[in-house]
Structure formats: C-alpha cells, structure tokens
Design brief:
Layout lengths: L1 H12 L9 H6 L3 H24 L3 H24 L9 H23 L9 H19 L2
Helix pairs in contact: 3-4, 3-5, 4-5, 4-6, 5-6
Length: about 140
C-alpha cells in the first residue's frame, strides 16, 4: 500500500530536484548521443548560472561558468564525432545538437547585449566557439 502512495509523492517532488547536470556526469555517460545531450543541457544550465552570477556582480564566477559552457559544447561536438555516424544518414542527434547550439547561441548573444559594454568582450570567444560548433553540425547534416 505504501508503494501506491510513494509514486505520487515522488512526482510532486520531481520539480524540486535540480536539473543542472554536472559535466562530469555527462563525461561518464557511455552512450555518446546521450553524452552529447547531457553536455548541451549542462551548457545551458551553466550559462543561466553565469547570468545570475553576473547580476550578482560575481565576475570571477561568471568566467568559470563561461569556461564550463565552452567545455560542454566541445564535449557535445566530440561525442557526436566519436559515434562515427554520418550526420546525413543518421541526423537525429546531430540535428538536435544543431538546434540546441543555435538556441544556446541566441542566449549568449542576448546575455552579451544585456552586459555592460566594458564586460562584453568576455563572451566573444564563447560566442565564436558556439557559432563554429553550430556551423559544423549544420554542414555535416546538409552535406551530400
């Protein structure tokens, strides 16, 4: 009888569980496609944390989180490359990563626009990296 009541309680508590995936969790994932997804989820969460840290005036923390975003994007790209799959013939995970990197790029650009003009250059390298990964994914899918 307790098992019947445990599930609804767990479902109610699920929103309280943090969704911020740790990059080490993503690296430990043996399935390369899932690893890529976890890494991109971590990148989005780290960027969100960086925005919060910037609003709180924690510049050092912002730089650390932006580095984590870049590492997450690199991990996602390398994981998909390690699958050995042709993005044109098996586009599911490649297309998902392309869409998520485009969304991440828009968030980086919005964050950069909200920043003080003197702080904006700290996002230039990250913006270029995310743009390059997005372009590589898109070209892999579109090439014949």
């Amino acid at each position: 009888m307790t098992a019947r009541f445990t599930l609804p309680i767990l479902l109610l508590l699920a929103p309280a569980i943090p969704l911020h995936a740790d990059l080490t969790q993503a690296q430990a994932e043996p399935n390369l496609e899932k690893r890529s997804k976890l890494a991109l989820d971590n990148a989005a969460a780290a960027l969100k944390s960086a925005r919060t840290a910037y609003a709180d005036g924690e510049t050092n923390k912002v730089q650390t989180l932006l580095t984590e975003v870049g590492q997450s994007v690199d991990l996602a790209q390398s994981s998909l490359q390690q699958t050995g799959k042709n993005p044109r013939k098996s586009p599911k995970y490649f297309k998902r990563a392309e869409i998520e990197t485009r969304a991440l790029l828009k968030k980086v650009e919005a964050f950069q626009d909200e920043m003080n003009v003197s702080d904006r250059p700290m996002l230039d390298a990250l913006r270029g990296k995310v743009q390059q990964v997005h372009d590589d994914l898109l070209m892999g899918i579109m090439e014949g």
